[in-house]
Amino acid sequence: MASIKDLDPSDEGFAKAVQAAMKKAAEDNPKLKVQTAPKRTSSDFNGGGGTSSDPEDIDTIRADRRKRRQG
Questions:
Q1: What residues contact residue 61 under an 8 Å CB cut-off, 6+ apart?
Q2: Is-above-0.85 flag for pTM?
Q3: Angle 27-31-32 (CA atoms, 0-180°, nearest 5)?
């Protein structure tokens, strides 16, 4: 960042000088370069294709809960 310390923002070539400084900084420090994200390698887990085991109504939920509490 020392390379842009003495630049004058009101100067006509300011934008080009900043771009050149950014390019040089990226060349000098590979961590600053833009990197692409790795390709997706996992399976698609969208959750579809099966039947739901969820109870259909509140009475079924309550009955199941009572059964679990009792035994």
A1: 55
A2: no
A3: 60
